[in-house]
Write a structure and sequence with these properties.
The protein is an alpha/beta fold. The chain has a single domain, classed as TIM Barrel, CATH 3.20.20. An 8-stranded parallel beta barrel has the order 1-2-3-4-5-6-7-8, surrounded by 7 helices. Strand 2, helix 3 and strand 3 form a beta-alpha-beta unit. Helix 7 runs parallel beside helix 8 and helix 8 runs parallel beside helix 10. It is globular and about 45 Å long. The model has no long low-confidence stretch (mean pLDDT 94). The structure holds SN-glycerol-1-phosphate. SN-glycerol-1-phosphate (1GP) binds next to strand 8 and helix 9.
Length: 252
Amino acid sequence: MNKGGIYHSLKERKSQGKRSFAVLVDPDKVNGKDMIRLVELAIEARVDYFLVGGSLVISTYLDDCVQLIKSNCTIPVILFPGSPSQVSKYADALLYLSLISGRNADLLIGQHVVSAPFVRQSGLEIISTGYMVIDGGAPTTVSYISNATPIPADKSEIAMCTAMAGEMLGMKIIYMDAGSGAKRPINEEMISRVSSVIDVPLVIGGGILDPEKAYLNCKAGADLIVVGNAIEKDLTLLKEMSSAIHSVPLVV
Ligand code: 1GP
């Protein structure tokens, strides 16, 4: 895929009113055999993207994991790094995350400054991402590690203003995350209100366990749904999840 191609594809799908589905893979949690099975099922289910990363990737498997996916399918691989070390030149793109819901300068810009030469050298397509952590009912790894207070789930106004600010600062996508394994995924009211005030693609993830929830999130305005844990536990969900997301009526 051309440089810029992933973002272009996301924007294109959005402009056609299509919703997209990404499966999140944590390189620490999958072995090679499981990965190949996951890729086979993802092809069958017409998954749109793989996201690879995690808050605490402690393995050296990142390159291997990305290469394994790339050598078995054409589904684009986007890095979702939990730390600046999670860069693999074998991926197609990288979400360059700035934690705009927090007030931790290091995660807003500090780590970016340190990793900038390395990230640029990777040659990856860089997608600047306004990353917003929303309270999912339990402290998640991301909120603990980032030492940042999530946006309360019932404060849609804060989420709206944060997303607007991110877009006006030039971020190409907004990612609202209740955190991996969240007890409560992001509610539709917040998704709908945030999506109504931004034009860039809106990514939603964290604690989505069933196809119905994914469908409702999309109807509320999510452009890209990210699911990790639920798929890890039950691979058969892939197909249903994907069909639900892709069956949402087109909105242009
Ligand atoms: C977390 O949005 C992702 O960053 C996915 O969360 O693992 O709960 O699906 P889950």
